[in-house]
Specification:
Number of strands: 14
Number of helices: 36
Strand order of the largest sheet: 6-5-11-7-10-9-8
Radius of gyration: 34 Å
Amino acid sequence: MIKKKQTISATPQGLERANRALKRLYGTQIVFADTLQGEVGRSTIQKFFKGEKILVDKFKEICKGLELESQWQEIAGLVDLPDSVDLPVPQTAKPALEKQEDGVDIDRLVQEVRESIRHNYEKRYGILKVLGMRDPVKLESVYTAVQFLDNDDIHRFESIENLEKLYRQASSRRFPSQDKGKQEGIKVANEKRYLMVLGGPGVGKSTFLRKMGLEALKGKEGKFYHTCIPVFIELKTFESSDIDIEKIIAEELCIGSFPLDEEFTGNALKKGKLLILLDGLDEVPTQYLYKVISIIQKFVDKYPKNRFIASCRTAAYRNSFRSFSDVGMADFDDTQIQQFIYNWFHSKADKQAQTGEKCWQLLQKPENAAAKELAHTPLLLTFLCLVYDRSQNFPDNRSVLYRKALRILLEEWASEKRILRDEIYQGLHTELEEILLSEIAYTGFKADRLFFSQSNVVQQIKTFLGSNLNAPQNLDGEAVLNAIAVQQGILVERAEDVFSFSHLTLQEYLTAQYIYEHRQVQELVSKQLTNKRWKEVFLLVAGLMWVGADDLLLQMEKEAQKYINTPKLQALLNWAEQSTTGSTGDVKPVGKLAVTIAIAIAIAIANTYVSDNANANGYAIANGNTYAYANVNANTYAYANADANANAIANANAIANANAYAYANAYAYANAYTYAYAIAIAYAEAIEYTRQLEKLKIFNKVNFTMLIDQLNKLKIKIPDDKQPLEVRREFLQHLQQTLLNAFHLSPDIINLSESEAKALENYLYANNLLIQCKQASVRVSPTTWEAIEARMLLVPSN
């Protein structure tokens, strides 16, 4: 029986085995420690390899990480250590290349070479460390399966108008993409002998190629089903026209545990036993590009039995390789984004804290819709994960977030990839380029254009360069546009000679930057306050105002008040004030007003159904009121986030919301002559939410006990669909009058015209946006905000 010990150490013979495994799998103790993700500390690992005693469970964990889990007792000297189970000594003899044609199993030899180069490949290409990450991560720990599109997007649309129409029909913040026919990347790589992977900067092209190499190294255990030796070649290293690809491959293969020469490489190439990964065709220096393309094509023609996967940025690709199948990287969908986040936060501590789930749920919130748009690009999703990892949140000031994302595309990503910059960047520095892009963004956004013709963009670039003494005057407009599209991917060619910003978020941010820097805030407020297309721009402008957003908020308040200049709307606000003044509920006055108006709108919706079923405008007014009601709820929700009595307001908001729809549904069901049980369900909900509303003590004069009693009595009198029309109408009128009496509402106040309903919607939307801009701001005077809050949802005094 093996004697149990609290602490154990490795024997010299066991350490020799462990060190060989360490060198084969990880290279260094530091990389090994990073791989264990904190499950075993670095100091404990150091003690292990010094032969010092450590806890048994840590000893086992280290052996498991070294793939020696079944041999831990032997390594510790707890049982005899037979020579027969020792790890194989790395082969130093040269493979019998001369016998390959005489019966030697080439697949066995390929397997040996794969094992030989595996550790070095994983060390060089299986680790990610980007965007200032503190520690590297294993590629396979965060890798998310990609999908490909057939590369025909460039030719899909005939005009800018078609693109604009398609975008608006999609009702999404994302630009149109071809979602039909998507295929799993690994499946396509297995099917195609020659594959060209296309996509913008940061979409994961290089990562995909590296992953295919890792899968090939696994042999039968991997998902790449061809017996191949992967060779990863970074094309940016091709800095001359004198290139010998065969020699480069031989040098890559010589890094393994036993030496290989060019003879082996030649034989392997002839038999088609290599997977050649050509990464970054667009990164080849411009002066050598056509020569390099010619050399690669001749190499493919010379050794056609091998498998080739190449990558290139879409904007730089000109159908260079006739034998390759071209596919485009699809943007991440929600499933891939979620999986990537879960993979990113995969450590034991993160899993226990459910960090990945929390990050994903936060990204789902409406206020983070623009941030989530960035997440469809893996590079910017990595950035978002790093941001969340530091603070367990996304910043309220989204301007800071988007500025950093823009800078990543402008300069940081190119710097990390060590791309040789074109000559244009020697004069057009980042700040100057950002100003240029902000002009293009603002001009398009103001004209309600998201897509621009190439000629229009080129002309804007020429005008910008010609009107700025500090800009280089010798630059060609088309060359500048091409460089921005190819190297940075901020502008993307969506159709032939038609461009847009890669993300609507970036266009909005650059538009906001232009407005702030050109002092057009007042014009923004006066012309676009209730234009929902400009909502993100307002929030971004507020975030850019480092010296304070007081003037912006005061201008928004003044403009919002113009929407309630009719007697009926002012009467509605006065009723809300009178209904809440002095009430004892633990909710701020403005929160009480918001909930009160929400209830009034619910009754108004019901009133629309009752008053005139034949009125052609009736449903339009009801829809308008519903929208206004939704905005008032957003208003109270904003306060739930911003104020001390958040729970009370959140509850009030939820109950007002449910109550309003319960009332409206009761009327809608009855008005449409649906089944009695459906009406009864809606009615029961209205009664339940009325009980909850009573507990909040927002209204000062409503007798909820009496109201609930009256609703219960009416509930048993709900007419079914067999009753005459007059009976049903009489019931609806009785219900309507019950609610009006209970809330002390005059029918005249809630009988809004279509224009009044729209004005109320705009007023409530503007107030909600005002609150959100206050939250997005870096600095707001407490005095200014307290005054605005005290006046909100009240009739302005003279």
